[in-house]
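Exercise: predict the fold of this chain.
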Amino acid sequence: MMGIAAVTASVESGDGVTEEQVAEARRAAGFLSSEVYDPAVVDMVMASAPSLFTVVEYEVANPEIARVMGYGVSADEWVHVVSADGKACGTFETAEEALKPYGKSDEVAARVVWVTPDLVVQKLLMR
């Protein structure tokens, strides 16, 4: 099997390699996406892509008892949160400020849980 760079170069040079063959080669090499992007586009997207998080409410005495209260997107200058039921939303300066609408007491508290690459891979593998 040709390497990914060789397969991609063959497609770009018109050597008869189909996009389907490139996609299959990428899957065989362990890439999650069959799409090939220009490196400059990848750099731009990675530099500007927002981070994802959830707002999780939990019982202080039993932190394992928890529920997702909202989903958030965090960019350089803003944070936007939508409630889990989709009925409320808000814009904040930081993810920690997004916790303010959620009550904190001796019994219940809320925290931010960032969606990390390992969580994304776990979700993809569960499909």
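Check your answer against the key: The chain has two domains: 4-46, 50-126.
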